[in-house]
Amino acid sequence: MSPIITAFEHSPDRGRGLARDMRVRWALEEVGQPYDVRLLSFQAMKEPAHLARHPFGQIPTYEEGELVLFESGAIVLHLAERSEGLLPCDAHARARAITWMFAALNTIEPPIMELSLARILERHETWYEQRLPLLEERVRKRLGELGRSLGDAEWLNGTFSAGDLLMVSVLLRLKPSGLLDQYPQLGAYVARGEARPAYQRAFAAQWAVFEAGSTPE
User: Taking the CB of the first residue and of the last residue of the chain, which one, N or C, has fewer CB atoms within 10 A?
Assistant: First the structure.
C-alpha cells in the first residue's frame, strides 16, 4: 500500500513548487517510492481529522500504515533513512548530510521566511522600507556563509543527499526577491537541484494540482 501525503487543494504559491509538500514529493521521487496525495482545503486543515495527523493544522503529513508523521524535514529524514539515494552509506558522511538537513531548516530558512513574509504581509506598513534592508542583510549573511562552505563543489557533502534536497527547497524561496541572482554560485547550485529528474517529476505533480484547481468549470 502506497504512503499518503497531504497537500494544499489550492496552494498559495500558485504551483511554483514552494509549498512544503514539494520537499516530500521530491524525496519520494528520489527514492522511487509511489505515493498517493490527499488534497485539503484550508478549512479541512483545521478540522479534527487532519488535526489528529498534524497538531498545528498544516501540511504536509505522511501516513504509512499506522505510522503518521508531520514536519517536512522529519518526513524527508524518515524516507532517507529507510531507502537508498538520499543518505551516504559511510557513517561520517551520513552524519554530515543530516547536519546539512538541520542547517537548511534551522539556519538558512528562518531569515528567508522572515523576508518572504515581510514582503507579503508588511509591505504597506509605514516602517516596511526601513526594515527591508535589515531583513535582506540577514539573508545575505547566510548566503555568503553557505557559498563559502559550498566552494566549487557540486553538492554540499560530495554527492547529492537529503541535505541538498532541503537546502535547494529553502533557497528556491529567494527567487522572487532577486537575492539569489547576486550569488551565481548558489544560483547554479539551485539549478542543479531543479534539473534532477526526481525534482522535475515532483514539480510536475504539484503543478498539475494547481492547473486542475484553476481550470474554469
Answer: C
